[in-house]
Fold these 2 entries.
Entry 1:
Amino acid sequence: MSLDTQSVGRRINELLVLSSVREEAKHGYQIALDVEEETGGAFELQHGTLYPILHRLEKEGLIEGEWTEEGRRRKEYRLTDAGRRRVGEEAGSLSSAFDRLLDILEEVRRVGVRPRPAEG
Amino acid sequence: MSLDTQSVGRRINELLVLSSVREEAKHGYQIALDVEEETGGAFELQHGTLYPILHRLEKEGLIEGEWTEEGRRRKEYRLTDAGRRRVGEEAGSLSSAFDRLLDILEEVRRVGVRPRPAEG
DNA sequence: GCCGATATATAGATTATCGACATATAGACC
DNA sequence: GGTCTATATGTCGATAATCTATATATCGGC
């Protein structure tokens, strides 16, 4: 039930990628642009990070890539059924973890920034 | 403005520690127990992770540790003024990033788990 | 022709976590 | 007295994923 903080960054990135190709097939470069836009710049996928992730997810069978035969050299990725299941599971477990975290962050922001917390 | 996913785990852990000693001084073991409880088990601090973090934060001047002279061998940590400032800043920047992320997660959970998304 | 944007890919350095190992005391139970 | 578990702190080696930089190639505008 606990969210391993060693892997939390990886899980966020992978979910952002999977989520991004959930509705339509996309190539990597487009995924990076969309993720940055969709998160309001809060999360970015550097391309040295993105492409290894795509290869990893494809090897795991969560996405399927296909090279386009026409125009620019692109590899279009679509979500597999396994990927769709994974997105649902991950969205659930990450949601509950980050909900808890945001509760704490909001508590901190509401009461915890005063120079000295009512000492004496 | 963007949240480096390489450091997101570290930043979460550090904020959980800083936040935990925000109201009262605590020793490491207690911090680990409290964090696990406060997050409903969503986040855990392994002690091989916790103690290096405490040493790091102390070296950065964000917390101050003091060995107890009586009873069990404990090191009590309290938040410094610099630590208090840091908590406020971090709570702000992590909040906005995770708010964005939760929006996406909720969107995924609401519409995105159907086996095939209205094809044809 | 040149340059920036598009597009993918890999390699090396960095860095923090994790699990294992180590040490020591307090208190409970027999 | 002896044993066991919980408390309490600490370090070390292996692991793993990101990041920055480098590489290659095409397209369109000027």
Entry 2:
Amino acid sequence: MFSKTCEYAIKAMIYVAQNSTGEKRISIKEIARETDAPEYFVAKIMQDLRKRKLIHSIKGPNGGFYLNDHDLKSTIADIVIAIDGNGIYTECVLGLKACTEKTPCPVHFEFVEVKKNLIKMLEKNTIRDCNEKIESGKFFLKKE
Amino acid sequence: MFSKTCEYAIKAMIYVAQNSTGEKRISIKEIARETDAPEYFVAKIMQDLRKRKLIHSIKGPNGGFYLNDHDLKSTIADIVIAIDGNGIYTECVLGLKACTEKTPCPVHFEFVEVKKNLIKMLEKNTIRDCNEKIESGKFFLKKE
DNA sequence: TAATTAAAGGATAAAAAGGTATTAATATAT
DNA sequence: ATATATTAATACCTTTTTATCCTTTAATTA
């Protein structure tokens, strides 16, 4: 569904949100370890997220990544778009450029429904929401 | 959503179904041209589909690909599984192996609903269905 | 049976995604 | 000021996906 890069990004965002309370910031090492992702690869992804202003960081001792209040309002859709692009919004399942409401592919309308639900879910869930769910103890970000 | 290979495979299956009426079989060249896919790549994909018994072929002059009555009953899900595997059925959006009903990730239940709809659509639509839709003149497999 | 046609199969190459290592820059504590 | 911890930036490597080419095999037909 999403790229590996995108999966790592979402998990990293949620993990940081959950653990960087107050003054505490989260290191790449910790993110990688706790989200079960390759360290150096995560480092690269975090830079990307930072450039796109989805997350913030501070260098040096006690540095690391954190989310400010605004960042916590990012939705999963925001992350997916930042990493994988907006294909979910625009592309036909069969990859047909000419597939539209007027000239639909055989599965166009059914697929539009599926995508609508998917997008709704992606846009509804903010990082803060995920955070709260995990804090409730009923949801997890477990690796294995 | 699906791999390029898978998109080509679905388009090829539908195109052959639609055009190999009676004794007529469809060549790789024609499939590639009409579905806007790279010829030699399509050739590989067709071999794959054939090995998995989703399509049939005959060599030599007037040879090519065709679908028998049974083949026409293949669903889009069958093609997706043959080419991309059954990840749609089994994998968590965040790639978490431990994500289950008992230990769900923050978006598990919402995503299960989305996947259920997607799978329903994939399993409902047979190649014959797609074929009939296109013949009705209201649906298309247009390239551009 | 020779010539022709079309798929099958194997080998390779180009591009994209995924992953690693190294060095530079920066902030903090002492 | 200096040592140190930590991200930033960059360059490189590996694997997977996508795409191409060439040779072989099978079927048809003249």
